[in-house]
Amino acid sequence: MRAKIMDRAATIVLTLIAVLIIGILVGLLGFILTQGWHKLNLDFLTSPPDIVKAGGGIGPQLFNSLYLLVLTMVIALPLGIGAGIYMAEYAPDNKFTQFIRMSIEVLSSLPSIVVGLFGLLVFVNMTGWGYTLFSGALALTVFNLPLLVRVTEDAIRNVPRSQKEASLALGITKWRTIVSVILPAALPGILTGTILASGRVFGEAAALLFTAGMSSPNLDFSQFSLSGPTSPLNPFRPAETLAVHIWKVNSEGLAPDARDVADGAAAVLIIAVLLFNLSARWFGAWIYKKMTSGAN
Amino acid sequence: MSVMTLEKTIIRARDVSVYYGEKQAISNIHMDIDRNSVTAFIGPSGCGKSTLLRSMNRMNDLVPSCRVTGSIEVDGTDINSPDVNIEGLRQVVGMVFQRANPFFKSIYENIAFAPRFHGMTDKRKLDEVVEESLRKAALWDEVKDRLRESALSLSGGQQQRLCIARAIAMQPTILLLDEPASALDPISTMKIEELVMSLKEEYTIVIVTHNLHQAARISDKTAFFLLGELIEYSDTSKLFTTPEHEKTEAYISGRFG
Amino acid sequence: MTHRTDTQSQSGIARKMLSSNKRQWTENMTGKLVATFCAGLLIVVVLSITYFIASKGLSTFFVNGISITEFLSQIKWDPEGEPAVYGVFPFILGSFLVTTLAALIAAPLGIGAAIFMIELYPNFGKKVLKPVIELLVGIPSVVYGYVGLTLLVPFIREQFDVLGFSLLAGGLVLALMILPTITSVAADAISAVPQDLRNASLALGATRWQTIWNVVLHSSLPGCLTAIVLGMARAFGEALAVQMVIGNTTKLPGSLLDPISTLTSGITLNMGNTVQGTPYNNALWSMALLLLLMSFVFIMILRIIGRKGLVNK
Predict the structure, then answer these.
(1) What is the pLDDT of residues C86-98, one digit of tens each?
(2) Average pLDDT of C79-83?
(3) How many domains does chain A have?
(4) For residue A97, which residues of chain B lie inside 8 Å, CB to CB?
(5) Radius of gyration in angstroms for the set of CA atoms belonging to chain A, rounded to a whole number
(6) A–B: how many Cβ contacts below 8 A?
């Protein structure tokens, strides 16, 4: 009899836990969205922050987050996919490969603040650039490489061997087989992983404090040059991102509506993350369906 | 220019053994395959017929532990010689696999992909090659209006014919077929068999099959393998009616396999 | 194409097989080299990170002459005092306390959720709970910190009449952050338990919970432990979310409700105020080195768990 009671009790407890977790998520999202919703207008999203008065916005920070995301991916994707190709198709069973696996393991467990500090030493001080968006992009590349490598390697390994055999049997070289036959087939997996990595990049702050910096010049969006301190596209300028801004506003917010600004910024951040998460799912499923359409 | 009488033998195997690590899969094969013939490899599962087939276009190279000894000559050239360019070999010796494996591309692209890689960039020429290969594979009429559609939208039998067309597009001399119809329904199988027999005039065909009736139907010569050894190799009609070896006779009459 | 087999000369075939296509060969080789370079880069990056942080972190001891034992065990942290005292024990203690607290809260919840998802209601689990977990993973840590700051800290302040910024707040925020990690890794481990084992237990008359407790959890123990350790590693390395809610004092805490500091928060708050090369700055780098070493320790713990798990199988 005791066993039955235990069974019933356990089921109740476990169900409560599940309900609790779902409740937390709903509560969390609901709290942030309802708190920040009123702030979400075009003015808030485009105007620069105000340090002392109320009414500042998050324009430059939002732009920085997006630009940083693009720049990081431009650097990290080729490197990650290249390494993933090596691990899936070329890596022999030797020490070098073992070292690579260990490196991936170590990199993926590093605290992001440590990656940021490394970035400070090398990409800010040693290079003499100071706090720049580019330094942040390099730090985030380091941070994201393990995920991209693993995602690519898995996606490539999941491509049926028969595809590779078909190509090789036609006299196609190994590299061309990888690039023209295997990679396109692995694309859904790689894309899904990329979108998830993008979500992480967009929300990352600790690695950027001492690389991209905690300030941003007022960006002059009429400038299209790649240099110049207020030119938005210049990667060699400080670039506080949205996530860093939320942190900064909370620790040294002087403006009277600091709390409001943080609410709005948090809402934007959450919405962006939700978008990334959802599009990762849908996109991956859509491409998969398209590629295997009508397969018997 | 004098008319060169071409040698009858196009593939010559001498003392060929294949090892996977320590395990020996094939022992001491001696065999000559005739130009423009259909040769069938038969035998129970694991007898080495597929392994031998795959040695002929060095697909075994994909397995790191695989080792081939002896000599396999295609038209007089030892294919395992270090001077041989493996991509070139595979242009001369084409292969179709057991399960149809079209690329995740359009029907057109499946066929044009390899010729384009090997240097054919003229679009009109590619169009010609695509049409001619599909005609020879008896698939043209069925797909001519949907060349840009995904190859995966075809039925199993059509996909396999597409794979044959894809192999033919490279203008190989020899076609290796590894149980090409085993995953197909009877009607598709029949179409493939008719196709194989029609291709004999232009290509040399070696076909691995576990379907004895199929071997009897379409091949000129048949080779029977058992446990990695070549037991008997002769004209199909002779092997199936008056086999010399008792094991051949036992296999054909279904006493094992 | 005409019947060309009777006019094709022997040399045609041999030519195809013996000629080498320079362009193809170069492309093939270049591709392989590029891929190898990318992979090798990973090793270079890890070695650089270790080298640079270690050389900066060790200069506190070798250049500034501070003793390691004093550094690690002294309770007083007063780098701007006269004389300057560098004792990081409060930070180390804070990190360990908040990580342990987070694990104590999140582990039962996470493993419970995993059991719910896999054993009790798999359909509901896959359709609802799993996406929820994945969403929670994606929420940036600053958002967790921010919610902690605006909701949790005032709540604790009101309920217990204290500052609000506390070890408890840090533990709760971190628990929430690592919960999804623990849940998904534990869920993987639990679903890997062969169905036969469950069937055998049920066939002997055990209840579902007995089966879960005795059979499933027992077999997936290494996996569940891995999940918890992974969560702890993440908690230990978290900087901003925890810094926003713990108060950041360097006094040792007397209770759950007292404020604390962690290694990560110490670095975050002070790195910007110090000058490169000064002992204060170097001391912060030593703290970073400690963080790096701790992540190595976590990796080793995970490897030991993994190996033990294999041995027991």
Answers:
(1) 888 899 999 999 9
(2) 77
(3) 1
(4) none
(5) 23
(6) 77
Distance (Å) from the C-alpha of residue B160 to the closest C-alpha of chain C? 23
Residues 47-66 of A with CB under 8 A from C: none
pLDDT of residue C313: 53
Write down the pLDDT at residue B11: 92
Question: Total structural domains in chain B?
Answer: 1
> Could you tell me how far CA C28 lies from the centroid of its own chain?
38
Pairing, β B38-42 against β B221-226: parallel
Residue B134 has pLDDT above 90, yes or no: yes
- The pLDDT value recorded for residue B132 is 93
Position A291 pLDDT exceeds 90: no
Tell me if B2 is assigned to some domain.
no
Q: Is residue B3 part of a domain?
A: no
| pLDDT averaged over every residue in chain C | 87
Is C53 inside any structural domain?
A: no
Structural domain contains residue A104: yes
Q: Is the pLDDT of residue B32 over 80?
A: yes
CA distance B100 to chain C (A): 26
pLDDT at A292 over 70: no
**d(CA A35, nearest CA chain B) in Å:** 48
Find chain A residues with C-beta within 8 A of B157's C-beta: none
Per the model's pLDDT, the better-predicted residue between C83 and B210 turns out to be: B210
Sign of the C-alpha dihedral, residues C151, C155, C161, C165?
negative
How many domains are contained in chain C? 1
* Domain encompassing residue B230: 9-252
C14: which chain B residues are within 8 Å (Cβ-Cβ)?
A: 75-77
Any domain includes C174: yes
Specify if B24 maps to a domain. Answer: yes
* Best mutation target, C9, C17, C18, to test chain B (most B CBs within 10 A): C17
What is the pTM for the complete model shown?
Answer: 0.89
Residue C180 in any domain: the answer is yes
The domain spanning residue B165 has which CATH number? 3.40.50.300
Strand order through the sheet with B9-20: B23-34, B9-20, B66-74, B77-78
Q: Chain A closest CA to C56's CA: distance in Å?
A: 9
Domain that holds residue A245: 38-291
Task: Write out the residue range of the structural domain in which residue C302 sits.
Answer: 77-312
Name residues 3-42 of chain A within 8 A of C (Cβ): 3-4, 6-7, 10-11, 13-15, 17-18, 20-22, 24-25, 28-29, 31-32, 35
Could you tell me the CATH number of the domain that includes residue C256?
1.10.3720.10
Least confident range of A53-62, B43-52, C9-18, C244-253: C9-18
- pLDDT value at A10 more than 90: no
| Band (A254; pLDDT cuts 50, 70, 90) | low
Average pLDDT, chain B: 90
Which tens digits make up the pLDDT trace of B217-253? 999 999 999 999 999 999 999 999 998 998 898 998 8
Contacts of A296 in chain B (CB under 8 A): 155-156, 159
The partner residue sitting opposite A169, judged by closest CB among B90, B104, B150, is B90
